[in-house]
Amino acid sequence: MDVAGQSQDAFTVDRLTDPEVIRNPYPYYDLLRAQSPLFGYRDFPPGTMPGVDEPKPSWVVLNFDDVAAVAWDHESFSSRDSLQEESSAPSLMLVNHDRPEHTRLRKIASAVFRPSSIQTLAPEVDRLVAATMDEYFALDVEVDVMADYCAMLPSRVMAHLFGMPIEMDRDVRNWATAFMLSADIDPEERQAFNVEAMEFFHNHVTEQIRRIELGEKPDGPLLNAFIETVVEGDRLTFEEIVRFCMTATVAGAETTSFYLGNLIAVFADLPEIWDAYVADAGLFDAIYKETLRYHGPPQRLFRVATRDITLGSADIKRGDWVACFFGAANYDPLVFEDPYSFRLNRENAARHMSFGYGIHRCLGAPLAHLEAESTARMLRERYARIERVGAAEWQGVSLLNHGLARNPVIFRARK
Ligand code: HEM
After folding, report:
1. How many Å lie between the centroid of ligand 1 and the Cα of residue 313?
2. CA distance 85 to 92
3. Dihedral of CA 27/29/32/33: which sign?
4. Quick check: pTM over 0.90?
5. Residue 1 banded pLDDT, cuts 50, 70, 90
């Protein structure tokens, strides 16, 4: 296959960081898939500093079965990230823990993120979705849904969950974007956002604990659950609570922003999918899952080999970095027939890898579903059509979060 004039021989693994590839990586994965695992990709894990840290050369794993094998085998492939641990950015809870610490933390966090508890947030999420649409969406004029709605809704949900003033939505947004490398920010600014976020959460958690001890019931259901949840006599330490706030901010706000943008892009660019959804609201779950496969936000995450191990044709050495390309697994034609077509009746759509696989599978998936379902439902109630206007621009900064930089549409009213 030829992509932008590339023949299979010309395209090499080190070019996966080219902006044109980041904007539309799938055809490039196809060029490399048969040779995967390949060595020689250099890119930045979340929390590291382009311009300060030096990325390690790593293996690239593209086939569905290999991606699943790496993600599943948490003993041979560690989630601890020495680059991030050495960097000045805070390291994340769970995401960067191996067992046994991971087991302990996940037990407590699973009680906090229990789907039934997340479901109780639905009325407030609906209220925030409606208010944010009222604020940013107008009829019959061009609206860049990335600039406002998709950027702000997940940050507002986070602010609510932590009991922060809603006016801090932009701060949450800035902290998440700086950490997740999805914008071209210089190292000093990135560092300043990390420090600001950690200081804020340190003070905020201190105050929240003080108020709870005084018998008050402060706002912030997720933060309160982090503070109060006890599992088998065990609870989170102060430091762990602060880092969980940081983790939920960066793991939850940025990914969901990009996901909501990708979902609205599906509605705008594939009008037959919008029409089908308008005719039958019950199709939402099929659309949700297929959008996660078709345009999953995190395209790749890293692991580090804890021992020498053979994966397909690759002899991976202990200490080697391995980039697990969830986004490429989602387009593996051996698992997903005709992967470039968006299908509502794809029987195995739920096998998408966009929430990861194995012990690190996304803990916030029920919350992401809540925000997406509420968004889609209210779009359907309010508008007859969502028309693409001008060109959608995919961001070309990082494969960590595949999504749009600009997503201009026009909303047309129901008659
Ligand atoms: C569409 C939105 C989202 C996507 C695509 C997504 C994707 C992912 C992926 C791929 C992982 C696995 C990481 C790995 O294997 O190293 C993960 C883990 C995680 N996610 Fe999400 N996520 C989303 C939303 C959220 C939200 C809203 C939250 C919380 C507020 C959240 C919290 C977490 C946490 C805490 C983990 C770590 C789990 C562990 O390591 O045990 N995510 N997510």
Report:
1. 30
2. 10
3. negative
4. yes
5. very low
